[in-house]
C-alpha cells in the first residue's frame, strides 16, 4: 500500500487508525482500472449523494461519474504521492493526495462518510497543479 500519514482527532473518537487504513484503501481502489470498469464496485464506494468538482471546475453527480469512469477505458492505476488521511469529525475522514505527479499532477481531496454500509465517498475535488514542480 502507498505510504500514508494518519491524523487522528479527539473530536472524532470513533475513527481510529484501522478506519484510516480502510478509507485510504478504498480511495486507492478508485484509481484501479478494474474498479473503474465495475459499476457494482463503484456504486459500493460512492455515496448515493456523491458529488465531485473536477480539475476543470465542472461539477458531477454520482451517475455522471460512474458513466465517465465506465467509459474511460483506463488500463493502468493512477500513481499517487503525499497521501494523508485525517479524521475530521465523528464518522468522517478527509483523504488528500497528489495524483499523477510526473505527468498531469493534481491535488485531490476526498471526504469519506461512515454509514450503515461502511465507508463511502461523499465528495471529491481535484485541482490541477501547473508544471512538474509541485
UniProtKB/TrEMBL annotation:
Domain of life: Bacteria
Domain DUF4440, first and last residues per copy: 24-121
Signal peptide residue numbers: none
Region of interest: Disordered: 102-134
Name recorded for this polypeptide: DUF4440 domain-containing protein
Species, as recorded: Pseudokineococcus lusitanus
Amino acid at each position: 500500500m502507498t505510504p500514508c500519514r494518519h491524523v487522528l482527532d479527539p473530536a472524532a473518537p470513533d475513527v481510529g487508525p484501522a478506519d484510516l487504513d480502510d478509507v485510504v484503501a478504498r480511495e486507492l481502489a478508485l484509481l484501479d482500472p478494474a474498479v473503474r470498469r465495475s459499476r457494482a464496485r463503484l456504486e459500493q464506494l460512492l455515496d448515493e449523494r456523491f458529488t465531485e468538482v473536477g480539475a476543470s471546475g465542472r461539477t458531477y453527480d454520482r451517475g455522471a461519474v460512474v458513466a465517465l469512469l465506465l467509459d474511460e477505458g483506463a488500463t493502468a492505476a493512477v500513481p499517487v504521492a503525499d497521501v494523508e488521511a485525517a479524521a475530521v469529525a465523528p464518522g468522517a475522514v478527509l483523504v488528500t493526495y497528489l495524483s499523477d505527479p510526473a505527468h498531469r499532477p493534481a491535488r485531490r481531496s476526498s471526504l469519506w462518510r461512515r454509514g450503515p454500509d461502511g465507508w463511502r465517498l461523499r465528495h471529491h475535488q481535484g485541482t490541477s497543479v501547473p508544471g512538474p514542480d509541485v
